[in-house]
Amino acid sequence: MSLELLIQNALLVLLFVFALIAIELKDLLHSVIVLAGASISLAVIFYMLQAPDIAITQAAVGVGVATVIFVIAISRTRREE
């Protein structure tokens, strides 16, 4: 088993764990931050699969734009605890 394959498998497991954590968290802001981490790991996976254009797009849209939009939407809502 090559080192690159081990790293890819570790990143896939990390992506899965981030996704599960984002689903299970009660605080939406924390969920968005964890979801951004999942997007970063997905961008690295795309880069390792030799798709740098998709990796850059994922990093820009998935991590940057989507996270900012989610945070703005959460900040405009009222929290009830």
In short:
The protein is mainly α. The protein is built from 3 helices and no strands.
List keywords for this structure.
81 residues; mainly alpha; 3 helices
Structure description:
The model has no long low-confidence stretch (mean pLDDT 93). The termini are far apart. Helices cover 83% and strands 0% of the residues. It has 81 residues and is an all-alpha fold. It has one domain.
Global morphology: flat
Instruction: Give the overall average pLDDT.
Output: 93
- Give the count of helical stretches: 3
What string gives the helices and strands in order?
A: HHH
Structural class assignment: mainly alpha
Low-confidence region ranges? none
Largest sheet: none
Number of domains: 1
Distance between the termini: 49 Å
Roughly what fraction of the amino acids lie in strands?
Answer: under 5%
Helix content: over 70%
Oligomer: single chain
- Secondary structure: number of strands: 0
Radius of gyration: 15 Å
Helices and strands, with pairings:
Blueprint: H1 3-24, H2 28-48, H3 52-75
Helix pairs in contact: 1-2, 2-3
